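The protein record filed below.
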Amino acid sequence: MSYAPLDVKNKIVVVTGGTSGLGRAVALGFAQAGACVAAASSNPDKVAAMDKELSALGARHHTGPLDVTDPQAVENFLRHVAAKFGRIDALVHAAGIMKRCPAADLSIADFERVLKVNLTGNFIVAQAVGRIMLAQTPDKLGIRGSITNIASLSSFVSFSEVIAYSVSKAGVNGITRGLANEWTPHGVRVNAIAPGVFPTELNRPLIDGTPRGQWIKAHTPAGRFGNADEIVGLAIYLASDAASFTSGQTIAVDGGFLAKGV
């Protein structure tokens, strides 16, 4: 078999949580690489802004508001994308929320809210897009589609006062491996990216000029936080034909954080 190219030109890529933070960077990165991007999030103003950005790039695209915890809304959005563009080649699921609170004080309602968005929402989206992909005609490599979840360093190690987020992201590992086990034999690859600490709207108050942020930098061999664009290359690889034998993996992009001991 000849080498499969690291190329996503003309692939149809859905990015949930695709209007801010890492999701926005990924959506724009795919568009710049020639993919057709369908970006969605729960914030209508940010959806409108992303539509303008994708239009300015001249990319084929679709944008829309989406609540990832609503199974019918998710199915409607994905089926609209598949009908409009003919198929869905890849999903990057970047939607997520965080709640910082000492575990002893965290309300059950807040705990369940984080899990509903980050974990149940992940499964809702993956299940819906998986059903579409499994019914698609495979490419010459036997691939029907690719799913990339966004995990976290919290999928592997503990950070204080974000217990619900940590539990949800540990669960993303379980979803990734479980779906890869079931769907890879049928041509749908499932992987995850575990970003290190990248300043976003979600975490900026926790790390900008704080002792927590200083400690994280000190524990990161690269000596800094990540830049959002530094996640894009791996996302493109995982959606490309070059990753045809990559499935069930959670890959960290963390400046060496997980590798560092004492």
In short: The chain has one domain: 12-253. The chain has eight helices and seven strands.
